[in-house]
Design brief:
306 residues; alpha+beta; 11 helices; 4 strands; 16% strand; globular
Amino acid sequence: MIDFNSYCIAILIFVGGLISDPSDINAQELQCNVEVNSSSVEGTNKNVFDSLKESISEYLNKNKWTYSVFSPNEKIECRLFLTVKEYVDDRIKGDLQIQLIRPVFNSTYTTTLFNFKDTKVEFDYRDGDPLIFNDNNWNGNLTGILDYYAYLLLALDFDSFSYKGGQPYFDKAASIVQMAQSSGEPGWRTFDDNRNRSAVLNSFTDSNTGMIRDLIYQYHRKGLDEMVTSPDKGRAAITSSLKAIGDIYNNAPMSVGLSIFRDSKLDELVNIYSKASQSERDEVYELLKDIYPADMEQLEKIRKPE
């Protein structure tokens, strides 16, 4: 288990004005497990996908993304699972599942902070192509996608420990989205798709839906982190945080943020409320039932735990 105080210090220190290049610091932030599934692609030398997996893993785990200092046991755990559906003329098309895992203070429990499938993944890649890190310039769609998700995951992780502490990394992700607008690559253009990368970022930063960042802090720092020593107090904070989901639904019922929350948290909520009072379970059920009508089986488990 990580030392929570040390972790808080790490995420709160932002010394950009003191260091000219974050690559000067050796302790990288991400511990990302990368998988590439190419079983749908026939008649292709599979070595290219092994090379791609190595390149992505090295790019995410060895580059320095922030000015904060992380010890090895404080690294942020994430998972990227790329399913390749097509590989023609050095062009890869597929889906990318992204997950962010967060430790809960003073316990061995981990929680899923972000779980999303990006279905608009396309990029050019040849076996042995170097992936060069430079987030101030557009170096192609593969590095653009990796940079975007690296900063988004950092933003969410920092937000979960410090109130809106992830703002510098939301800004970085926004800069990448801005650069990508003129690239012609799919998955970036604002208003083209309510589930693309621009829409995902907007779900956390737009004034109509940005209250999800308040939820992230209250749910994790005031809720889960407190439940180990005070289950009732922590669970009450989580119940209060869920009101933001209702606000988002009222403001933007098609927001991708609602489905991201569902895919990340619905199973966990069943466990959280398994020992809650009936009134608390009913409150959460009533809050979520109109927002997630297709998930009534899970919601019923919240209201009537087995």
